């Protein structure tokens, strides 16, 4: 086994365990899988591109053949979709649980960040197709367009949009985490910093040595850390619910029991009450 195979599949096992732990916890709290909410379904959808990205990362190699170049192009697509689905999952969660009693400006901040995230994804996706035309030149061994083999311009543009997206999305929940949960806040800030660093290093590796596979180690780390960040609050809440008393006491410093348990009192609920009767939806 190569170092990439060991690392990527180990990280994959961790991510899948967290996702299924989240779904089991949500099943316990909501009563059935049919009651899973939008962010849960987004996380389930994320399994497809994330699994594909891990498989493709182990097939790319040095991109010296047409087949490997096809895998390289597909890997870039799956990596982008995975990372932006994590962002979408977090934004949907924030919309559902953030309380409405906060200021008008804070509500519009979330909407603005969501719009920026969506626009960024569209720009990055379109750029992937425009930098190398026709798209088939990405795996054409005789192409004369350096962007088709190096991905330099696309990588630089992706990095320019990914950094502000990560920073905005990772710091959005900070004002809503109760002060006693300092351990949770510290863990989330550390994870968000690691996500940012791995993303920067991965794309810096491509910009410096586009033909070397060293960026693959960072690609798998970036997507896995993003998934861990998105699922950590649910995992700690599950531990608080199911673990023995001594473990519950420690885990309570990580869980989010004071966040709203339903859409009542959240921005999403406030918008929906004008159109339909209220329905309670638990968060944890």
Description:
The protein is mainly α and 284 residues long. The chain has one domain (3-272). It has helices at residues 3-30, 38-57, 66-97, 104-130, 147-150, 152-171, 182-208, 215-242, 245-251, 267-272. Helix 1 runs parallel beside helix 8, helix 2 (38-57) packs antiparallel against helix 8 (215-242) and helix 3 (66-97) runs antiparallel to helix 4. The two termini are 40 Å apart. Residues 250-270 and 276-284 have low confidence and may be disordered.
Number of strands: 0
Judging from the principal axes of the Cα atoms, what is the shape?
A: globular
Provide the structure class: mainly alpha
The SSE string, one letter per element, is HHHHHHHHHH
Number of helices: 10
Return residue spans where pLDDT drops below 50 for at least 5 consecutive residues.
Answer: 250-270, 276-284
Helix content: over 70%
* Tally of individual domains: 1
Question: What is the alpha-carbon Rg in Å?
Answer: 20 Å
Main sheet?
A: none
Mean residue pLDDT? 81
Membrane topology: Multi-pass membrane protein
Protein name: Rhodopsin domain-containing protein
Main location: membrane
Subcellular location: Membrane
């Amino acid at each position: 086994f190569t170092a990439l195979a060991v690392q990527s599949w180990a990280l994959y096992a961790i991510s899948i365990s967290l996702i299924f732990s989240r779904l089991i916890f949500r099943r316990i709290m909501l009563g059935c899988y049919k009651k899973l909410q939008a962010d849960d379904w987004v996380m389930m959808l994320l399994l497809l591109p994330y699994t594909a990205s891990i498989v493709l990362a182990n097939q790319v190699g040095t991109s010296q053949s047409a087949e490997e170049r096809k895998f390289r192009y597909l890997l870039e697509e799956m990596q982008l979709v995975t990372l932006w689905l994590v962002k979408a999952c977090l934004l949907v969660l924030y919309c559902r649980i953030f309380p409405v009693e906060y200021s008008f400006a804070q509500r519009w901040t979330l909407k603005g960040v969501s719009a920026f995230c969506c626009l960024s994804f569209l720009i990055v996706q379109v750029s992937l197709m425009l930098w190398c035309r026709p798209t088939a030149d990405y795996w054409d061994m005789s192409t004369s367009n350096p962007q088709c083999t190096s991905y330099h311009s696309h990588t630089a543009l992706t990095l320019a949009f990914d950094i502000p997206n990560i920073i905005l999305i990772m710091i959005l929940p900070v004002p809503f985490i109760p002060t006693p949960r300092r351990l949770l806040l510290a863990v989330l800030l550390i994870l968000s910093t690691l996500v940012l660093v791995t993303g920067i290093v991965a794309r810096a590796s491509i910009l410096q040595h586009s033909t070397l596979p060293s960026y693959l180690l960072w690609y798998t780390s970036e997507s896995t850390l993003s998934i861990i960040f998105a699922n950590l609050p649910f995992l700690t809440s599950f531990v608080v619910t199911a673990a023995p008393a001594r473990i519950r006491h420690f885990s309570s410093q990580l869980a989010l029991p004071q966040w709203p348990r339903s859409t009542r009192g959240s921005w999403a609920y406030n918008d929906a009450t004008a159109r339909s009767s209220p329905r309670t939806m638990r968060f944890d």
